[in-house]
Design brief:
The structure is a single chain. With 504 residues, the chain is an alpha/beta fold. It folds into 3 domains: 161 residues, Rossmann fold; 175 residues, Rossmann fold, CATH 3.40.50.300; 79 residues, K homology (KH) domain (GMP Synthetase, Chain A, domain 3), CATH 3.30.300. The protein is built from 14 helices and 15 strands. Strands 2-3-1-4-5-6 form a 6-stranded mixed β-sheet, sandwiched between helices. A 6-stranded mixed β-sheet has the order 8-9-7-10-11-12, sandwiched between helices. Strands 13-14-15 form a 3-stranded mixed β-sheet. Strand 8 and strand 9 form a beta hairpin. Helix 13 packs across helix 14. It is elongated and about 85 Å long.
Length: 504
């Protein structure tokens, strides 16, 4: 048991309201919710606060204990892992449908665990709660608690029941720890006095009054504090969204990086339906890996659940720091891959292109595949393109290095004098084309934003600058600033003409 943060797993058959309860407790819309069975498949973690106590919630997919093959078996494995990690299991059932055979199968398996199980009878709004909960006494899991996850009825009492035994156990462990600490203090009173005498010995000082190492204690403390602040800012988690067409290896990539079967990876398009965020630490840096549903062409998206998945994927692209575009190299690049790349470009996110399943491409065809990808994605010539194999853990170190470099380029701070000098050099190399009687004048430049980097150029008649010259400036700055892996945006701002209204 974790004495500081309890873990609560939500378990039940499909479409009983687990994700609805998860969203209510976390006060979010992180879990995808629709009146469609089997929408949630992977474990979904979230945080909630109840009366000042932080809890970790795990949303799970529909549990089928007897499933032996296919996606259902993978979902059952995910649920069992959530039960292992949890301090308390909330078994959610449907009060409107009543007790079903699958509920009895789940209850039978939960009774074999060493976890506390709380039975929540959901969807009790508008019906008699005692009547709805009555038949669930047969499960032998204690008193059923009628709730409504949609309206919030009975949810607070449910959480209080979940935390009652945990709080008692926490208090017991804390009391034992306090007694052990007091006993250790009593035994160490003598040695502690000796240590205090040693601390009173003056430190040998140099000629300038400093300690022998040449540093004052205050100087060392200040240096350590400044270094700590810089490191804290640098180690802010990097959000990496893995996007692409269905069955491109997105979940397999995240599992390979984590070194565990954290996500369901199945050789079936559309296995992942929701966006799942997973914390990841790589080479002393924190990341948040976001697994997304595969994006198909708009004309092939008919099911409501798939439309929800598309929305969640686009939100993940907007919220991430770096996007990894997964392309199935064995299947070849398609127009949909180019469309997804366009979404990323429009969002202005740093990008790394990963040609997955490279081991499945015949050696004599690899050059052609690479050239075709470069041709189709010509508008992303600034993004690194890597060949990897998520299934066989090949080139994943290069991938993470490219992600770090793209992130660094997207958040780089650019000096105004340096940008202005580059701007003047660009104008000297190639002036903007004349538009009418006047030629646009570009006077100075400065940084206007990050992720993506924005360069703001001031001058006169800049509204007459065409797209071709804008692209020239983008390439000019990108080459000299070495901005690889991130888009670059140029904005023009024209000063007001003080003589515009004279003579009228």
């Amino acid at each position: 048991m974790n004495p500081s943060v309890p873990v609560i797993a939500l378990v039940g058959r499909p479409n009983v309201g687990k994700s609805t309860l998860f969203n209510r407790l976390t006060r979010s819309r992180d879990a995808l919710v629709a009146n469609i069975p089997g929408l949630t498949r992977d474990r979904h973690y979230g945080s909630a606060t109840l009366d000042g106590q932080r809890v970790v919630l795990i949303d799970t997919g529909g549990f089928e204990p007897v499933a032996a093959t296919g996606v259902a078996e993978q979902m059952a494995r995910q649920t069992r892992q959530a039960v292992i990690e949890a301090d308390v299991v909330v078994f959610v059932v449907d009060g409107r449908q009543g007790l079903l055979a699958r509920d009895e199968e789940i209850a039978q398996e939960l009774r074999r665990t060493a976890r506390k199980v709380v039975l929540a009878v959901n969807k009790c709004e508008g019906i008699s709660r005692p009547v709805a909960a009555a038949e669930f006494h047969a499960l032998g899991l204690g008193v059923p608690m009628p709730i409504s996850a949609t309206h919030g009825d009975g949810v607070h009492a449910l959480m209080e029941e979940c935390l009652e035994d945990w709080r008692a156990e926490r208090d017991r462990l804390l009391a034992e720890a306090a007694e052990a600490a007091a006993a250790s203090t009593d035994e160490a009173e003598g040695p502690a006095d000796a240590a205090a005498d040693e601390e009173d010995v003056p430190v040998e000082a140099g000629e300038d009054g400093r300690p022998a190492n040449g540093k004052r204690a205050g100087d060392a403390a200040e240096g350590a504090a400044g270094k700590g602040d810089a490191e804290a800012n640098e180690r802010k988690p990097v959000r990496v969204a893995v996007v692409g067409r269905p069955n491109g290896g997105k979940s397999t990539l995240i599992n390979a990086l984590l070194g565990e079967e954290r996500l369901i990876a199945f050789n079936q398009p559309g296995t992942t339906r929701d966006s799942i965020t997973v914390d990841f630490r790589y080479r002393n840096r924190d990341y948040q890996l976001i697994d997304t549903a595969g994006l198909r062409r708009r004309g092939k998206v008919h099911e409501t659940v798939e439309k929800f998945s598309v929305v969640k994927t686009l939100q993940a692209i907007e919220d991430c720091n770096v996007a990894v575009l997964m392309i199935d190299a064995a299947d070849g690049i398609s127009e949909q891959d180019s469309a997804i790349a366009g979404y990323i470009l429009e969002a202005g996110r740093a990008l790394v292109i990963a040609l997955n399943k490279w081991d499945a491409v015949p050696a004599d065809e690899r050059r052609n595949v690479l050239q075709e990808c470069q041709r189709r994605l010509y508008f992303l010539d600034w993004a690194p393109m890597l060949t990897i194999s998520a299934l066989k853990n090949r080139a994943l170190d290069k991938l993470m290095k490219a992600v770090d470099e793209a992130r660094a380029a997207a958040t780089r701070k650019l000096s105004t004098p340096k940008l202005t000098r580059m701007l003047h050099a660009a104008v000297l190399h190639q002036q903007p084309p004349r538009n009418g009687p006047f030629r646009p004048k570009l006077r100075y430049a400065h940084q206007g934003g990050q992720n993506p980097p924005v360069i703001v150029i001031h001058g006169s008649s800049l509204d007459k600058v065409g797209d071709s010259y804008r692209r020239f400036l983008e390439g000019w700055f990108r080459e000299r600033l070495a901005l690889q892996g991130t888009p670059l945006r140029i904005e023009f701002r024209t000063g007001a003409n003080p003589y515009a209204n004279r003579g009228k």
